[in-house]
Specification:
This protein has 118 residues and is α+β, with helices and mostly antiparallel strands. It has five helices and four strands, in the order βββαβαααα. It has helices at residues 36-43, 50-54, 62-70, 78-90, 105-112, and strands at 2-7, 14-21, 26-33, 47-49. The model has no long low-confidence stretch (mean pLDDT 92).
């Protein structure tokens, strides 16, 4: 079982996604969220065929299609986070945190500054 917490800074929502492998083809999902759309999305995806979600035709999977229909923001991190948790649960990747950090103006200038050659 893998559990991930998602804190979306844009909308301020907190979501917990739990993925548990049921059998060779199926994972069970539990999505708890203070976002109504995310909670509803979770209710429509309680059990999924992980091979459809992770295969080359993943945009046609119910998990992805329902996210497009139900979640309010196209950049909502829940579909990607759920896919990563499924990958970890079935052994396709190691469980590791994902971080998106917007750089301040100062950080951008600092990182783009030319370096002196010694």
């Amino acid at each position: 079982m893998h559990v991930v917490d998602v804190f979306d800074g844009s909308c301020g929502s907190h979501t917990r996604i739990t993925v548990r492998r049921e059998d060779a083809r199926t994972v069970n999902l539990t999505v708890s969220s203070d976002c109504e759309a995310a909670a509803f999305w979770g209710q429509t995806n309680k059990q999924v065929d992980w091979r459809q979600c992770l295969g080359k035709d993943f945009p046609q999977s119910h998990l992805w299609q329902s996210a497009v229909k139900v979640l309010r923001h196209r950049s909502c991190p829940l579909p990607m986070t759920t896919l990563r948790a499924i990958e970890a649960e079935v052994g396709a990747t190691r469980p590791a945190d994902i971080r998106i950090h917007f750089l301040s103006s100062e950080e951008t200038a600092e990182r783009n500054a030319p370096r002196e050659v010694e």
